[in-house]
Amino acid sequence: MANVKTAVSIDKSLFEQAESIAREMKVSRSSLFALALQDFIRHHQNEELLRRINEAYEDLPDADEQERVGKMRRKQRRVVEGQW
Fold this sequence. Notes:
By secondary structure, the chain is an all-alpha fold. About 75% of the residues lie in helices and about 0% in strands. Helix 1 crosses helix 2.
């Protein structure tokens, strides 16, 4: 994988905190920033996936689906009755 150099401006206090954490983790600042960015991207992707899942499930089941679910639950109760 090719590396790309970039310049980023951040607050001095944030830089100092990053510097301290990088030393503590025994990694370079570049590695720390790359790890942080990877984590941020993963979090963003998870948020997007959750939004899409919620969007897919936001429509409530219609009457037929509710009836079918009720029948399945009753059947499941009869199947497991007395097992626990």
